[in-house]
Amino acid sequence: MKTTAIILFSVFMVFAAIKTYAQVLETKTNPKSTSIGTEKSLSHDPTVVNSGSSSQYRKSQLKGVEGRIFIGADWPAGKVVLRDGGSIENYLLRYNLLSDQMQFIAGQDTLAFASPDELNTVTFDGHTFIYENFECGDAIRQGYFELIVPGKNKLLLKRVVTYQIPDPKDESSTKYLIDDCYFISKPGKAASKLMCNRKSALSVLNEHNEEIEEYLRITGNKVRSLDDLKKLVAYYNALEVHE
After folding, report:
1. Is the separation of the CB atoms in 168 and 176 below 8 Å?
2. Phi then psi for 66, rounded to 5 degrees?
3. Contact criterion met (CB below 8 Å) for 193 and 199
4. Residue-wise over 135-162: b if at least 16 C-beta within 10 A, else e?
5. Nearest Cα to Cα of residue 75 among 23, 99, 38, 111
6. Which among 117, 76, 70 has a CA at the least distance from the CA of 97?
7. How far is CA 26 from CA 96, 108, 152, in A?
């Protein structure tokens, strides 16, 4: 009995230490399985998740392309840098689009960071993520974004699950439509959505309209692709540096 009490107390202390940094999401029996019913789904714009049967599924009528809900599905090793300057190396990491959680493996458990606002960057498998405030209608939300262009004004990517098609016979065969949404994060402001078009770019990058107009004219940049956006934001940041 005494031995059992000691073991239970030790387990409690270990769990208490972990809990300040992570929350347990799944059972240790299958750490890589995803139970959508127990994870939070983002029901607000821009991350509305709809579901339906395959008979209702019409790709031509829905936004996004079919894809996986995990970035880093094979749990690549990565690095976590904290806002206080500390860092954690060689974590096995993945990002769950559906629940908007940064997850990692500890032992046989799958965990998620409980205080993502304490994270500066999370980097793995060629991707770097940050946790930011962003505009969502009339509200300010928080979520993970992939960092596309660093600098004073950051170009960010948020992958949005727009539709979910469950397979009643095989949960692992559930299909998802995913849309790419781009945002600009300016110092001291919540990130705002940026469309791949000239009008949106001039509306969001509005401190240097004349210079931007001239840049677009000279370079022929039509702001129609991610590459166009990356070049435009890099140029915008260069203008900010020389102020």
Report:
1. no
2. -65, 135
3. no
4. ebeeeebebbbbbbbeeebbbbbbbbbb
5. 111
6. 70
7. 13, 10, 38
Say how many Å lie between the first and final Cα of the chain, rounded. Answer: 72
Cis peptide upstream of residue 46 (ω within 30 degrees of 0): yes
Enter the tokens of residue 188.
Answer: 């001291």
CA distance linking residue 181 with residue 14, whole number of Å: 39
pLDDT digits (tens, 9 = 90+) for 192-234: 999 989 899 889 988 888 999 999 999 999 999 999 999 999 9
pTM, two decimal places: 0.76
**What are the Cα distances from residue 101, in Å, to 45, 97, 178, 225?**
17, 7, 16, 27
What lies within 8 Å, CB to CB, of 90 at 6+ separation is 77, 78, 79
Q: Which two tokens stand for residue 170?
A: 């095989």
- Separation between Cα atoms, residue 206 and residue 129, nearest integer Å: 26
β-pair partners for 119: 82
The two tokens of residue 93 are 């990491």
Phi, psi of 177 (to 5 degrees): -100, 135
Give pLDDT tens digits for 69-124: 999 999 999 999 999 999 999 999 999 999 999 999 998 899 999 999 999 999 99
- Three-state SS at 13: helix
Q: Position of tokens 């692709």?
A: 225
Is 142:135 a contact under the CB 8 Å cutoff?
A: no
The tokens describing 5, both together, are 């009490």
The Cα 232–Cα 216 span in angstroms is 8
Q: What are phi and psi of 52, to 5 degrees?
A: -170, 175
